[in-house]
Amino acid sequence: MKAFGFLSFGHYGAGAARGEFGAREALQQAVEIGVGADEIGVNGAYFRVHHFAKQAAAPIPLLTAIAARTKRIEVGTGVIDMRYENPLHLAEEAAALDLLSDGRVALGISRGSPEPALRGWEAFGYEDNDDAKGANLARAKFDRFLSAIRGDQIAPADPAQFGPGARLSIEPQSPGLDRRIWWGAGSRSTAEWAGEQGVNLMSSTLLTEATGASFGELQREQIDRYRQAWRAAGHDWAPRVSVSRSVFPITTDLDDLYFGRRSGADSDQIGIIDGLRSTFGKTYAGEPDRLIDELRADPAVEAADTLMLTVPNQLGVDYNLHILESFADHVAPALGWKPNTEGPVQGHSA
Predict the structure, then answer these.
(1) Is 350 part of any domain?
(2) Which helix (DSSP H) or strand (DSSP E) does residue 309 occupy?
């Protein structure tokens, strides 16, 4: 592990009950967590994207707000559900944000997880006639998005202005942005596909596989297959790999109250998601020395360059920054962490 960031699901309530915050508070607090994390030296601020739910949904305005108030922290997603996106519009917005932030964008993109709406992407105006889950739609859009940010000529030009046969690329262009795009993979096969495409790997918070192996072992095999596919495709740069974990150092009585007396959360969980038997990672909670030993023994954390810590955003700015600072002070240095003051994160050689 070279770097760590926080991954927020952006939950909020109706904002009607006493002490309950709504969308405005959730977004404003997300910005403040990002600002505080940058000052701590945290490497990345990442947000889940969901639709038709009381969670973060429109990432670019949020990432822009954080980027405008920070200097070094990477801003990104984990993940954007491509089924809901116009790929060229997203390419324009991503490039503009990347230019404004001096190359600090790291967008995780994927087919996405099941949403509250039944085929909600159809309400956004998109249909997949070949796959009820929209996987083909997502990959086709992702191909077009990558083509656009790589500067390919996408649209025919007006011959009255440019002459016959001319074509145009999207604007603006941000050179190098394509090397900071990640595919969120929930299986070994999708990880291999990401390696073939030449994009970074964001291993999911769950895997749609259950073989009896631990979550960390499954992820490690996924990472190894990704790197094998990367090498076979002949890409000439070192990709990045991230994994997500729930990690809570117990350093105060409040930490112990929230996370120290957990039952059933200290082991992997098996469940059904999207009709598939899936493996969910365990929660790591304990004194720092114990966490160091456990995370060192996690084969996927050992193989990844970036660890994303899922944070309880509804517990407020101060407590979330306390979690990040505790991890930075007491756990991360022993795992090889380099704070954001040492420059952009580099991937391990594939």
Answers:
(1) no
(2) strand 306-311
Type of residue at 338: K
**Would you state the structure tokens that stand for residue 28, as one six-digit string?**
């404003």
Q: Residue 108's domain spans which residues?
A: 3-342
Q: Residue 136 corresponds to which amino acid?
A: N
Amino acid at 295: L
Contacts of 257 (CB under 8 A, 6+ apart): none
- For the record, the structure tokens of 255 come out as 């930490």
* Residue whose structure tokens are 């074509």: 167
Starting at the edge strand found earlier in the chain, the sheet holding 206-207 runs: 206-207, 276-280, 269-273
Instruction: Output the pLDDT for position 347.
Output: 94
Between the alpha carbon of residue 212 and those of residues 215, 271, 274, 279, 327, the distances in Å are 9, 13, 19, 9, 30
Sign of the torsion angle spanned by Cα atoms 155, 156, 160, 163: positive
- What CATH number does residue 163 fall under? 3.20.20.30
Whether residue 89 has pLDDT greater than 70: yes
**Average pLDDT, integer, range 121-132:** 93
SS3 state at 254: helix
Helix (H) or strand (E) holding 291: helix 288-296
